[in-house]
Automatic annotation (TrEMBL):
Organism, scientific name: Geitlerinema calcuttense NRMC-F 0142
Residues of the full protein shown: 77 to 341 of 352
Keywords, alphabetical: Transferase
Domain DAHP synthetase I/KDSA positions: 17-261
Record-given protein name: 3-deoxy-7-phosphoheptulonate synthase
Keyword Transferase assigned: yes
Upper taxonomic lineage: Bacteria, Bacillati, Cyanobacteriota, Cyanophyceae, Geitlerinematales
Entry keyword annotation includes Transferase: yes
């Protein structure tokens, strides 16, 4: 089937409305995997803003594989995100893991993220669809395109049309050199199948900071509407996902390289 007009998801941020969509400029989302403390989140926000990002990402509630790994600071990290929002003017994107947290997260976040591990958490999708903040729906690590689009339908059927899809790498047979396989072919496939805006996350998609610039460029060339990139002021000391995080300097350099590629809108 062919859809009609591409939808635009317009997100209100302190710096004004930012539209995501096929006919809008690229939108850049950057920040650490986890919100660790006030100094690091504010510093990261100010630096990625200066480099050209419109949104700060950062997890307060983290879906970690091991229960003994850092789980995120939870509610207190939401306050730190609010401080970073005030300091930078950036919009905030952060993950919701539990339906019980939606309301308090929505007080701080401009976009609510549903993570890969919750893509088919249908009760979460229904509740997040019944509130007004735009939603970023990451692709499950083994989800088909059809399952992903149906997960988006759950949100929209519950009343919220403002859904952004984010490809973050899928599992394939070889995880020795890259954490996941970034499915860039999803971009033209989604363009044909859905009107929704398309974001690419080359950080989780590769798991290594060295590979992020090449895949960011490839994503733009393939037609992505937005990029999500993990940035940490000191990746070696990061509490989560340090190996795939760019330093603010590397992010700034990448943004300069990307500015010459651009996007046909
Ligand atoms: C994240 O973006 O912080 C994250 C946990 O990603 P994913 O759900 O794609 O693994
Ligand atoms: Mn991460």
């Amino acid at each position: 089937y062919r859809h009609g007009e591409p939808s635009e998801v317009i997100v209100q941020t302190p710096n004004g409305a930012v539209p995501f969509g096929e006919h809008h400029p690229l939108v850049f989302v950057a920040g650490p995997c986890s919100v660790e403390n006030e100094a690091m989140i504010v510093e990261t926000a100010v630096r990625v803003k200066a480099a050209g990002a419109q949104f700060l990402r950062g997890g307060a509630y983290k879906p970690r594989t091991s229960p003994y790994a850092f789980q995120g600071h939870g509610e207190s990290a939401l306050e730190l995100l609010a401080a970073a929002r005030d300091a930078s003017g950036l919009g905030i994107i952060t993950e919701v893991m539990d339906t019980a947290d939606i309301e308090k997260i929505a007080e701080v976040a401009d976009v609510l993220q549903v993570g890969a591990r919750n893509m088919q958490n249908f009760s979460l999708l229904k509740k997040i669809g019944a509130q007004e903040k735009p939603v970023l729906l990451k692709r499950g690590m083994s989800a088909t395109i059809e399952e992903w689009l149906m997960a988006a339908e759950y949100i929209m059927a519950a009343g919220n049309p403002n859904v952004i899809l984010c490809e973050r790498g899928v599992r394939t047979f070889d995880r020795q050199y890259a954490r996941n396989t970034l499915d860039l072919s999803a971009i033209p496939v989604l363009r044909e199948l859905t009107h929704l805006p398309i974001m690419i996350d080359p950080s989780h998609g590769t798991g290594r900071y060295q590979y992020v610039p090449a895949m960011a460029k490839a994503a733009i060339a393939a037609g992505a509407d937005s990029l999500m990139i993990e940035v940490h002021p000191n990746p070696a000391k990061a509490l989560s996902d340090g190996p795939q995080s760019l330093t603010p300097e590397r992010f700034d350099r990448l943004m300069q390289e990307l500015s010459v590629i651009g996007k046909a809108v």
